[in-house]
């Protein structure tokens, strides 16, 4: 299977921040969620993927093309992008945006665009500057999905949206990947959205990729253990990924395989896995 995105040893350093040798692969047809706290480096990574900022080192292959090759411009047609700052001229309307996009993208599909505009209940004749944040996001998503992209890259695209619209958009994304060999990379703070949507979860923390793993595998590998401190200490050290003490003992994220039978474990959520891994990593 081809990879929609392959990142190898991607490094970018700012004065107080370093995106540090990030490597990951997004297989075609899959959805990858990029999770990380504020300032973890998600937007930096997405800008580097689009070659909008200069990397220090590393390699990025998108849809089989090096993103620094001369003909990457052509590949950009195949990428639908939604950034936090949507980047459309604010004085124009959704209808006028259609005319601009028609000239920008060879594969622009007017009908698809207006279908999304209607589906998202966006006013066609209102200047974008008078849209709410959620409406702007919806417009950007409509545009990104209307030029026959094979890869969607979304940076915090669902965070300003109400739960009902978010849910609808998650369905649209699922539809998008089900149809053909379409792939999505989506960053979000809303872990529950990503848990619902994604096949892969990539977790970025302080510029380092803590893991990039199939969601089902994560949920299979880790469990939450509730026990006494002495019981936890009796486990092998490598079993424990992170822990939190409470008045009864400890809650810990542990490897399922390494927990003896009979102990009090329950399934971990992606949110548990992330929160507890951060505790484990920050301790080292
Ligand atoms: N042009 C720049 N010059 C200096 N530092 C920068 C620049 N752009 C980003 N940074 C720093 O890089 C770090 C990562 O920022 P980035 O925007 O990638 O985080 P993020 O994970 O997208 O965060 P958020 O969830 O808050 O959007 C931050 O510490 C930020 O201050």
From TrEMBL:
Residue ranges annotated for the ABC transporter domain, each copy included: 2-231
SUPFAM superfamilies registered for this protein in UniProt: P-loop containing nucleoside triphosphate hydrolases
Keywords (A to Z) from UniProt: ATP-binding, Nucleotide-binding, Transport
Cross-referenced Pfam families: ABC_tran (PF00005)
Domain of life: Bacteria
Gene Ontology MF terms in the entry: ATP binding
Gene3D superfamilies reported for this sequence: P-loop containing nucleotide triphosphate hydrolases (3.40.50.300)
Record protein name field: ABC transporter ATP-binding protein
Organism: Kineothrix sedimenti
């Amino acid at each position: 299977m081809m990879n929609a995105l392959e990142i190898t040893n991607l490094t970018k350093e700012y004065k107080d921040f370093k995106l540090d040798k990030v490597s990951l692969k997004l297989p075609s047809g899959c959805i990858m969620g990029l999770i990380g706290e504020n300032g973890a480096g998600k937007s930096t990574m997405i800008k580097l993927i689009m070659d909008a900022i200069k990397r220090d080192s590393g390699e990025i292959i998108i849809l089989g093309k090096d993103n620094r090759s001369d003909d990457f411009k052509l590949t950009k047609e195949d990428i639908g992008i939604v950034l936090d700052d949507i980047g459309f001229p604010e004085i124009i309307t959704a209808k006028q945006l259609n005319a601009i996009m028609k000239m920008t993208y060879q594969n622009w599909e007017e009908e698809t665009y207006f279908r999304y505009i209607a589906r998202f209940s966006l006013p066609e004749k209102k200047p974008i500057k008078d849209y709410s944040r959620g409406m702007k996001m919806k417009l950007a998503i409509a545009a990104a999905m209307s030029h026959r992209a094979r890869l969607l890259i979304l940076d915090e695209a669902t965070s300003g949206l109400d739960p009902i619209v978010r849910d609808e958009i998650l369905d649209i994304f699922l539809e998008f990947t089900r149809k053909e060999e379409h792939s999505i990379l989506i960053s979000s703070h809303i872990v529950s959205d990503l848990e619902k949507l994604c096949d892969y979860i990539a977790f970025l923390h302080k510029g380092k990729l803590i893991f990039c793993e199939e969601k089902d595998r994560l949920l299979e590998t880790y469990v939450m253990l509730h026990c006494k401190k002495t019981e936890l200490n009796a486990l092998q050290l490598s079993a424990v990924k992170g822990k939190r003490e409470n008045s009864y003992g400890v809650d810990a994220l542990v490897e399922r395989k390494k927990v003896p039978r009979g102990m009090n474990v329950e399934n971990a959520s992606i949110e548990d896995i992330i929160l507890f891994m951060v505790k484990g990593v920050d301790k080292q």
